[in-house]
Design goal:
Elements lengths: L1 H18 L9 E9 L2 E9 L6 E3 L10 E7 L3 E4 L10 E3 L13 E4 L2
Antiparallel strand pairs: 1-2, 1-4, 3-7, 5-6, 5-7
Amino acid sequence: MRLRTSVAAAFGAAVLALTTPTSAYAADGVFSYGFNTGNQLDQRAALFDPPGKQCITLKLPNGADFAYAALNRTNATVTLFADDDCSSDAFYVVPPGKAAPKKVLVRSVLFSR
């Protein structure tokens, strides 16, 4: 009888662990940004459902020093930084559903959730 109860408890704990959301801190939606490389101007890239409360260095191809024209279509506020590791002063803050001015240059971001 105890073995059956122990197996049932272990199975229940495993099911609960698998059904719990994996990330309590994530922004829902899309964050997009533009960049230029050589002769190819105004390319765009995006982060889908980005993790929150951790620094994200934007992936830029060779030849692109900064991203610009950041568009925040997530449910979280995003802080833009001019360096690779979110260690400089906050450069610009973009609320959900808003865009940063095109001239704001960015290399890393940090989402509020």
